[in-house]
Amino acid sequence: MVPRTNGDGNGRGMTIARRIAARRRTMPAAMSKIADVVTEHPTAPVELTITELAERAGTSAATVTRFCRALGFDGYTQFRVGVASEIGRGGADQSWQADIGREFGAHDEVGKMLQTLVVLHVQSLETTAEHLDLDAVLRVGDAIAASDHVDIYGVGGSGVIAREFQARLYRIGVRAHSWSDVHEGLTSAVMQNQDSVAIGISSTGRTEETVQMLSQARAAGAFTVAITHDAESWLAGLADVSLSTTAPTPYLRPDDLSVKHSQLLVLDLLYLLVAQQTFGVATTHLAASAMAVSGHRRATRTAKTPVFQEETR
Question: Element (H or E) spanning 7, and its range?
Answer without folding.
Answer: none
